[in-house]
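Subject: Predicted fold for DNA repair protein, 251 residues

User T.R. writes:
Posting the sequence so we have a shared reference for the thread.
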Amino acid sequence: MITGLILAGVFLLVSIVYTIQIVEKSNLEKARKRADLSDRCRRCADLSDGLPGQMMTPALKLLLTRLELNLSERLQPLDKSNDKLSARIQTLRSEAAKGEAIQVSNPPRQILTEAQAKESRFMLEDLHAQIVRAAKEGLLKQTEAKHWVQDIQRMLAILHIEYFAGLGRLALQQNQPQRARLAFERGIQHIRRQPAPAAYQAQLKQLEALLEHSNALVLNHERPKADEPSELAEGMKAFDDEDLWKKKNVY
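User M.O. replies:
I've generated the structure tokens; pasting them so everyone works from the same file.
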């Protein structure tokens, strides 16, 4: 009987430990899932509000709204006491119901520095990651995800083109035509390296016109002015009219 009680006690103890482990594992999994969903919701919101206006469209705004809504609804059972989340879900549902009429208020942003270009590039890379993961989880159809991946590649190309164009214009304002020429040349090269450069013909023509203008400024800067004294001109003044043959030899 004593042996039976001991065995029963051991079994009970093992059962309690096992149950505690199961509960702890479940809590850890819920915490991990809650943190992951919260992070993805935050990223979708940041992208929706933070992407430059020249990259944001009603279709993209609607996509990010629907993704955040889906993630928020999955998060709600894991964070039932979060009133802010409940209010956010109501807002997202209202915005998603507008469809393509959803409002886009993102202001356009000039890309003039390397830091600005990197910030926008990181946002596009994050957008790419969110779309790929949504497709893996079945939130997006593969054809739709492929369309958005291609559009992100287009936006990345536009980002670099705008960066080089902005650098060139800034250099022109600072009276640095050599730097401007280099920036415009890099922008043109970037367009020609694209898989479908025909999609960027408007930007290419604009950069080519700016490059031509920069080249003209560079030549004008490098050409000595007529009234500027030069060593050759001063030397020529020293010759008499009777020494014409010397001038011919100099030339």
